[in-house]
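Repro case for the chain-ordering regression, as requested:
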Amino acid sequence: KQEVTQIPAALSVPEGENLVLNCSFTDSAIYNLQWFRQDPGKGLTSLLLIQSSQREQTSGRLNASLDKSSGRSTLYIAASQPGDSATYLCAAMDSNYQLIWGAGTKLIIKP
Amino acid sequence: NAGVTQTPEFQVLKTGQSMTLQCAQDMNHEYMSWYRQDPGMGLRLIHYSVGAGITDQGEVPNGYNVSRSTTEDFPLRLLSAAPSQTSVYFCASRPQALLQADTQYFGPGTRLTVL
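-- result from build under test --
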């Protein structure tokens, strides 16, 4: 059974720093790996989707990588801003086309 | 486009009551799903649908029913509410059920408390 883990559960960094969020999964048979953002009391917004044949995807200051062999994905945020404060969730699409979710990393960017 | 809409935003029920959480999307998406989100846990799939008239169970289906009579609507019914169903419920949709390049679009959620 696929399990997705995000460590740490919470992270606080000063504004302007580059940072990396981690996501690990136990079964490498995935169709894609997705990163979402969730603001307090809100729904989830898709950030990046990496298909199983891809190694990375970029959008603005965000870069997500995927290493299926090691069961890991990372989300790199460059030049962090207070507006980046949110909970970041990763999800792996399994062989049944269902998303298996991590519990998220709560990110706080200090001004 | 309104995207994915959910009503109500907040709801308080007493144990044993029933209710329906509404979900609608105006993007003509084939796939729709319901998740629950509990503190410290990832989203868990309750039920999903790959098209009108087709539904299936997810990871935690007990105590919930769904139907998909139209492409747009996917209501979630709580049959007899229990305190363990206190949670935040999210509806999501994506264009196709079996395409790995499609991301999901989420509604704003329904915050349910069962006393």
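Ordering looks correct now. The mean pLDDT of chain A is 96.
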